[in-house]
Amino acid sequence: MPRTQRLVIASGNRHKVTELQRAIAEVVLPEGVALEVVSATVHGALPTIIEDRETFAGNATVKALGFAGWLRERGEDPSALVLADDSGLCVAALDGRPGIYSARFAGENAADSDNNRALVSALRALNLEASPAHYVCALALARVDLGPLAEADGEGVRIFTGRWDVEARVVARGEGGFGYDPYMWLDGRAQTVAELGPDVKSARSHRGAAMVELQAALPRIIAGL
Fold it and tell me: Looking at the predicted structure, is the pLDDT value of residue 217 above 70?
């Protein structure tokens, strides 16, 4: 009988969950192992994790550790893996903002539209129509019981990172993606991130780059569980 390894994505953001599930499905697993990938929402309303570190990797670690404890309380398999994501946009003209505050650039509980308006306002306040920018993604992987994990750091977490260079503009185009995507331009302003299909975006994006690192490491990690 194949062994089923469970991996829980520590997010309620359906866009992130879909991107991560699609990428993880491409992993070639050790023989005799099946991987079940679910959102943490299968356990109900998600906890609020205080993101109090100063880097994407630090906040992804906080999420992974916080969700691991929450999942243990809900009876999740101790050997299950938990994958947390922290990602955002860094705009050169804004000295790297919004950075780790990307999801709340316009304030707590801000919608994507609010954050985009804040971004446009910040650029226009500098009399700018555009600025170099980049997306960053940090993925943090841990066991639910925080047990041994291949090449984990001192907190029992393994980090994978990716970056995607774009140009932030005050003009939007496209209906796809989420977050700041309609305002992020690519390929000499030929298109925006919001105009990319999901497969193309996954292949080019910051999250895709981090996932390539995870995909390479996951078979070895699972074999060691």
Answer: yes
